From TrEMBL:
GO terms of biological process kind: small molecule biosynthetic process
GO molecular function: dioxygenase activity; metal ion binding
Signal peptide region: none
Similarity comment text for this entry: Belongs to the iron/ascorbate-dependent oxidoreductase family.
Name of the protein: Leucoanthocyanidin dioxygenase
Organism for this UniProt entry: Penicillium angulare
Record key words, sorted: Dioxygenase, Iron, Metal-binding, Oxidoreductase
Stored PROSITE patterns: FE2OG_OXY (PS51471)
Pfam families reported in the protein's UniProt record: 2OG-FeII_Oxy (PF03171), DIOX_N (PF14226)
Domain of life: Eukaryota
The Fe2OG dioxygenase domain, residue ranges: 172-289
Amino acid sequence: MSESLDLSLLKGTPEQRAEVSAALLRTLKTKGCAKLKNHGIPDELVHRLFDQTRRFFSLPLEDKMLAKHPPEANPNRGYSFVGQESVSGISGFEKGLPQGKFVRDIKETVDYGSATDDLVENQWVPEEKIPGYRNFMEDFYDRCFKVELEILAALATALGISESDMVMLHNKAENEFRILHYPAIPASELADGTATRLAEHTDFGSITMLFQDSVGGLQVENQQNLGVFEGVESSNKTDIILNIGDSFQRLTNDTFRAACHRVTYPPTVKVGSDEVIPERYSIAYFAKPNRNASLFPFKKFITPNTPCLYEDITAWDYNNLRIAKLFGQAA
Ligand SMILES: O=C(O)CCC(=O)C(=O)O
Ligand SMILES: [Fe+2]
């Protein structure tokens, strides 16, 4: 994966802004994801985000279950234990493939939304279990929202569409924020292909901003070489790893395609060996268009040569179509 892009240049001269926006678009279109540094969220807070995440997952299971996710997809809030959700149900979705074989994800997660969301509530463990946790997470969500809008505006510039239309489409912060823990596991347990850390998938929203620790194992499909998954280098956990989701693919009428990604063996561990794959933590912020917004492609992308590929659907209906496939398959 190429160098991290310097996001602070978005606040530089008009030339710097145009240059970094174009580089962002180019990297996403070729590599499938981009790494961003100087994004405005202080390093110290990213380190604390990992600390808080570790604290949550270190709680006993009965405490984590005090903030449990319901067994079904919605409301998509709260703690999902290992095995509750499996992403293989949507693996072929973006490529129009039928549902493939079921693969278990060996991960546990917690999903949050905006603190001001009036449709669904976040699930928190009691404050005394992890003092300061809720405040920290709510603040971090808000910080991600600010960065999200800057990135979306930059992408709009690079695509030649209205920045304000793009921002308006996302101004309600109806996003999702997910902490993930992949427990340590013998490599041999993943060897027969019935289980993995996180099965191949695309994200549903507009853009995803991801933080990963230094363990490694995240792979993204190269957009110029489909079928080839490249490891995302993991030495700097304060970098944001950015990728495009399906909603953006629809809005741009496939000018921009959502990149498939997955989490598997880190580069240091031999496939099927007796080694134990170390535990891994990551945090994903899924930026989504407002629930009531239409995902119909922007006019600019519908031309005689590029006819419209998509029916009209609201962001919320589309989200629910996708998320329904994630839960309840383990039985
Ligand atoms: O853990 C990771 O690095 C990736 C997480 C991810 O792709 C997701 O939650 O959608
Ligand atoms: Fe993802």
